[in-house]
Amino acid sequence: MEITTTDIPEVLLLKPVVHRDSRGFFLETYREEHFRTQGIEVHFVQDNVSKSRRDTVRGLHYQIEQQQDKLLTVMQGAILDIAVDLRHASPTFGQHSAVKLTEDNKHQVFIPKGFAHGFSVLSAEALVYYKCSAYYYPEGERGLYWNDPKLDIDWQVDEPVVSEKDQNQPLLHEISKEDLFYE
Ligand SMILES: Cc1cn([C@H]2C[C@H](O)[C@@H](COP(=O)(O)OP(=O)(O)O[C@H]3O[C@@H](C)C(=O)[C@@H](O)[C@H]3O)O2)c(=O)[nH]c1=O
């Protein structure tokens, strides 16, 4: 397992060892000690799967109160994964990481608490599997408008497919102080 940083030092890119043989391949999608050796204490409690068609943009989402670390794996297709830093005192506040995760490269991304997360779909369909360190908590669910020009994110999609909820999320400067992260 190779672990490197992205444009945001706390958002990690993971490259699992892929064991290939005549049957196909095998890889470990999660191994706790890999995080512990990075000094990260994480305990995942919920796993999610979503399937989306080309040009879908999901996000940007985060939870307050029950904050979530996330570990993403793409099982089929290809996505561009985005994490926006919402930690008020961070030198990279408002900046984002952008990582391509595909069924071919088998890379994963770890997004810690303090980030809004989203992804766009670059293939005909994408099946995304991710682990979360806190349960889904709708009352604490918050969003950031995916296409806020201030974020300057190139989602690499032509005709974005976006949920009604995500079309109505606030711009970064509209987010109240209570809905940002402080540590
Ligand atoms: C996220 C979530 C949704 N749901 C329900 C609520 C709703 O009826 C339906 C679809 O929810 P959404 O439209 O919010 O799904 P989606 O847009 O895929 O939401 C996800 O987006 C990505 C980018 C993330 O980072 C995730 O944490 C999550 O927020 O599923 C759950 O039951 N549990 C969950 O954990």
From TrEMBL:
It comes from the Bacteria. One of its GO terms (cellular component) is cytosol. InterPro entries: RmlC-like, RmlC-like_jellyroll, RmlC_Cupin_sf. It catalyses: dTDP-4-dehydro-6-deoxy-alpha-D-glucose = dTDP-4-dehydro-beta-L-rhamnose. One of its GO terms (biological process) is dTDP-rhamnose biosynthetic process. Keywords: Isomerase. The keyword tRNA processing does not apply. The active site is at 61 (proton acceptor), 130 (proton donor). One of its GO terms (molecular function) is dTDP-4-dehydrorhamnose 3,5-epimerase activity. The keyword Coiled coil does not apply. The record marks 136 as: Participates in a stacking interaction with the thymidine ring of dTDP-4-oxo-6-deoxyglucose. It holds the Pfam family dTDP_sugar_isom. Its EC number is 5.1.3.13. Pathway: Carbohydrate biosynthesis; dTDP-L-rhamnose biosynthesis. Homodimer. Catalyzes the epimerization of the C3' and C5'positions of dTDP-6-deoxy-D-xylo-4-hexulose, forming dTDP-6-deoxy-L-lyxo-4-hexulose. Belongs to the dTDP-4-dehydrorhamnose 3,5-epimerase family. This is dTDP-4-dehydrorhamnose 3,5-epimerase. It comes from Fodinibius roseus. The lineage of its organism: Bacteria, Pseudomonadati, Balneolota, Balneolia, Balneolales.
